[in-house]
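The authors assume throughout that readers already know how a fold can be written as discrete tokens. For illustration, here is how one protein appears when written out as sequence plus structure tokens:
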Amino acid sequence: MPYQPTDILTSETEIREVIDGIHPAQTLKILDHIDTHCRVWIERSPFIVMSTVDAVGKLDTSPKGDPAGFVKVVDEKTLAIPDRPGNHRFDSFQNILQTGRIGIVFLVPNRNEVVRVNGSAKIVRDVPLRESMEINGRIPAFAIVVRVEEAFYHCGKAIIRSKLWKPDQAAATDGLPTYGEALFDQSRSGQTQEEIEARLKHNDENRLYDE
């Protein structure tokens, strides 16, 4: 039987009884646009985590990665994210079509802080915009255009605690299932594990930008 919590908080007051008020800088730092500091961070980020939500509140959080600067700062209120070949589920696209809401975390390797952006989103096919995102002769079929409502730096405590950029201190990966092992057991697709592993290897080596 799933765990049933017994001490559930239902108000911010209950939280504030344990954790006191917000430092003024934590509210003053939140911008409604991309300033110079946020822009240079975004242009140096090769990896983002993107969250969207559908009309009934179901969430999706997706990793996106490309060479640094793959998210284009179009202007101080607008970002553009290229769509690259993936699993064809289009969870984020479906959510954007329903609610048009998005949240993004921008990571830069070897820096503990992150930049966060929240706003609205649309899926577009503007040719000049997509052409500006070409890699290896491949132009993305779609782009996500984000209208910035909030942009701010987030402190580095989470990455410091996780030691994310200290691989020499990372836990051993022995015993972790491969992606192929997990797919074989979870999908029950009728393919052998060897066939799945071969397909995944092909995707990693040949399908980064090609369908």
